[in-house]
Structure prediction request, 171 residues.
Amino acid sequence: APFFLSANAVNFTENGELIVLDVDADDSEGGAVDAGIVYNIIGGADAELFTIGESGFLSFNASPDFDVAGDANADNVYEIDVEANDGLATVESIQITVTDINDESPVIAVSQFFNISEAAINGEIIGTVSASDIDGISLQNWVIGSGNVDGIFAINATSGELTIGDNTNLD
Prediction:
């Protein structure tokens, strides 16, 4: 019976190419790897989400999205059983873990209002800008993109804390 040479656990970056793994098996009869071996997906909780070609290339049917787990138990670990058959069959369970990339833009909360006094001093904290990122990435590199031509406001690039930068034009 054939024996598997390829890994039975792999990582796959979300939204990547569809090919996950080149499944390889050998039958110890002196032929080339994959020679005379037919591969089939025969089970596993996520079997319907994959295909396997004649040469053992295992592929997702559609590129997975980490942020919307599509596997049976929604943990981004896809589980399938692959058979290698040369007249005798061997089955290996394979786990494909989909990993996250930063592919979503942060969303700044709308309608954020801050009150300041005309007598506010430079460096006075006005508030902290609120935003979220579906990828769970820590938000940083905050900048004021427009509307601050007089430099009245400053923002902490790491925290999003908004302060008075130059109070000379507050009135």
